[in-house]
Write a structure and sequence with these properties.
- This protein is 42% helix and 20% strand.
- It is α/β, with parallel strands linked by helices and 245 residues long.
- It has a single domain, classed as Spore Coat Polysaccharide Biosynthesis Protein SpsA, Chain A (Alpha-Beta Complex).
- A seven-stranded mixed sheet has the order 3-2-1-4-7-5-8, with helices on both faces. Strands 6-9 form a two-stranded parallel ribbon.
- β1, α1 and β2 form a beta-alpha-beta unit.
- α5 packs parallel to α8 and α7 packs parallel to α8.
- The longest helix has 20 residues.
- The chain is globular, with a radius of gyration of 17 Å.
- The protein starts with 8 loop residues before the first strand and ends in a 5-residue tail after the last helix.
Length: 245
């Protein structure tokens, strides 16, 4: 294998104050990826954490040559962290995953196969036939997620069963094009990327995932829900103003 070639896979992990739980996730990621036989990189994008997330990662995983840490000087939101990682990733295929691995890292193989053979973008779905929810979110949060996806489909003319699942994969050239045009950094950024993909006519596959809720979520429910709903209107406005050209 040519050590100077680009990695096959870039895995982007947005992180905000993840000192207490990212260690376990990175252990699983490195163990899984080291067994795959292809070159890869892991980009942890720290979103202006106020705890010792970065220091902990460097202390615990500093010898991992596949690891890169990207630091945002101030908190910009999950969408901003994902955007930075996607634009800096060097892999042929780029993925992003939540830091808590709500979707097991082993599912990366299914997503990679789908991208190689059938589609341009692969998105996880907790609602597609075959999905397994091992631990549900609290009822109201799960309901809000369903309502948001329905509104996203209605307002943006999309047809997805789950817009906000935190595991998605892209072919490199498509990730570069879409995330360079991204303008929203709150939780509605997923819908913005899917809307841009629809405008370009890219093939999107929904993959049913195994999913486990983590109680230590960083979602600020009412604030993030309201901002995300308003974000859908911003997407339409940005399109009408020609900001996605």
């Amino acid at each position: 294998m040519n050590e100077t070639s680009n990695p096959v896979v870039s895995l982007i992990i947005p992180a905000y104050n993840e000192e207490k739980r990212i260690g376990k996730s990175l252990e699983q990621i490195f163990r899984f990826c080291n067994a795959q036989g292809y070159r890869y990189e892991v980009l942890v994008v720290d979103d202006g954490s106020s705890d010792d997330t970065v220091a902990f990662i460097r202390r615990r995983f500093g010898d991992e040559k596949q690891l890169r840490i990207v630091q945002q000087p101030v908190r910009g939101g999950k969408g901003a962290a994902v955007q930075q990682g996607m634009l800096q990733g060097q892999g042929e295929y780029l993925f992003f995953s939540d830091a808590d691995l709500s979707v097991p890292i082993a599912m990366l193989s299914t997503f990679l196969s789908e991208l190689r053979n059938n589609c341009d973008i692969a998105i996880g779905s907790r609602r597609a036939p075959g999905a397994i929810i091992e631990i549900h979110q609290p009822f109201f949060r799960e309901l809000m997620g369903r309502i948001f996806t329905s509104l996203s489909n209605l307002v943006l003319g999309l047809r997805h069963s789950d817009a906000t699942c935190g595991f998605k994969g892209f072919r490199r050239e498509i990730a570069t094009e879409l995330f360079a045009r991204q303008r929203l950094h709150n939780w509605s950024f997923d819908s913005e990327i899917l809307y841009l993909a629809a405008l370009k006519g890219y093939r999107v596959s929904e993959i049913p995932v195994t999913w486990r809720n983590d109680k230590a979520t960083k979602v600020r429910l009412w604030k993030d829900v309201i901002a995300s709903f308003l974000g859908l209107l911003s997407i339409r406005k940005n399109h009408l103003l020609g900001k996605y050209r």
